[in-house]
Specification:
Layout: E1 4-5, E2 8-9, E3 19-22, H1 24-27, H2 29-32, H3 38-51, E4 55-60, H4 80-87, E5 95-101, H5 107-110, E6 121-126, H6 131-144, E7 147-152, H7 160-171, E8 177-182, H8 189-205, E9 209-214, H9 221-230, E10 235-238, H10 252-258, H11 267-282, H12 291-298, H13 304-311, H14 317-327
Parallel strand pairs: 3-4, 3-10, 4-5, 5-6, 6-7, 7-8, 8-9, 9-10
Antiparallel strand pairs: 1-2
Helix pairs in contact: 3-11, 8-9, 12-13, 12-14
Length: 328
């Protein structure tokens, strides 16, 4: 039973409508240039099945005209043959997802009709000014037979009037889910409360659901994900050990152990961490909370400057904060 008090879920509720999306290969791919080993991908797929995870995002559907395949691992492009090499016909309850960025994919050519693909869901990533283009993509994907979400990026930089207008447009589209995305890891739970209420009100009025994708710049990705869930978000993003761009994301291990649905089991994911994530870190792949990401989160700035700061082996944090303030 999905019990709520005053329209909100309580922390002890069993809510069968909640679903989990594993974004390890997509957001985590931004850390290692999508160079995952076949063993990593196959074992993650099996771990997600055993853990009861609902969706697994394999990566991007990026245009090979814009991005040179020689410079990226195959999960930047998610060719059908590569996904099928892992999942076959995917005779499991786990659904397969990919992300398509507005302006960075050739969706009419590269995304097949659903009847010819093992992919179940396409997630459209868009900035607020690109929403009309995003809606054209949504309608194309729905005609092809897919589940579709729209993820509005960098919403912490969007003014209220533009956000309201964008949400209204998406409510009139064929999208199944609208995502609240904390791209810069700048939100606090109180802000997530209000934004989630706004998103849920718009989405439910149009027969849609709301998703949450959080970044961990201020070590609040898990807290913000829980808060969005409490306010009615149904599709929750997480990555194994928080692996993702910059400060990373909500930890899958934490989210699975928090939810009260008995179908979820964190142990297969913890075992995957033991067998694969520790090895990645030993090889020098770096992500997760650090002072430079904290500073960009506090100042609501894109993490690219912090990534460059860390890659340059700088440790002059105070000067870096002043540089960020000067930009502002």
């Amino acid at each position: 039973m999905d019990s709520k008090q005053n329209g909100k879920r309580t922390l002890m509720d069993y809510c069968p409508d909640i679903m989990i999306m594993d974004c390890t290969m997509r957001d985590g791919g931004l850390v290692n240039n999508f160079e995952f080993t076949d063993a990593f991908v196959k074992d993650l797929y099996q771990a997600n099945i055993k853990a009861g995870v609902d969706y697994m995002e394999f990566g991007y559907k990026a245009s090979k005209d814009l991005f040179d395949p020689k410079e990226f691992g195959k999960w930047k492009f998610c060719d059908e043959k590569d996904i099928r090499a892992v999942v076959g016909e995917n005779k499991s309850s786990l659904k397969i997802s990919v992300m398509a960025d507005v302006g960075r994919c050739n969706y009419k050519k590269d995304i097949l009709p659903k009847k010819d693909s093992v992919i179940d869901m396409i997630r459209v990533a868009t900035y607020i000014h690109q929403i009309p283009a995003a809606i054209r993509m949504v309608e194309d994907f729905k005609r092809k037979g897919y589940e579709v979400t729209v993820n509005i990026m960098a919403v912490s930089k969007v003014n209220t009037d533009d956000l309201d207008a964008g949400l209204s447009l998406l409510a009139s589209s064929s999208a199944d889910c609208i995502y609240l995305v904390d791209s810069f890891g700048s939100f606090y739970p109180e802000q997530v409360t209000k934004l989630s209420q706004k998103y849920v009100e718009v989405a439910e009025g149009a027969g849609k659901i709301v998703g949450m994708h959080a970044h961990n710049n201020q070590q609040l990705a898990f807290a913000n994900t829980i808060e969005a869930c409490r306010m009615g978000a149904c599709l929750l993003d997480a990555t194994v050990s928080g692996m993702g761009r910059g400060a990373g994301n909500c930890y899958m291990e934490s989210l699975l152990s928090f939810l009260k649905n008995p179908k979820y089991d964190e142990m297969p994911v913890i075992r995957f961490v033991e067998e694969h994530i520790l090895k990645l870190k030993a090889e020098g792949v770096v992500w997760g909370y650090d002072i430079p990401y904290l500073l960009t989160g506090i100042l609501n700035s894109h993490p690219s400057s912090a990534i460059h700061f860390i890659n340059s082996n700088r440790t002059d944090y105070c000067r870096f904060m002043q540089e960020l303030l000067d930009v502002e």
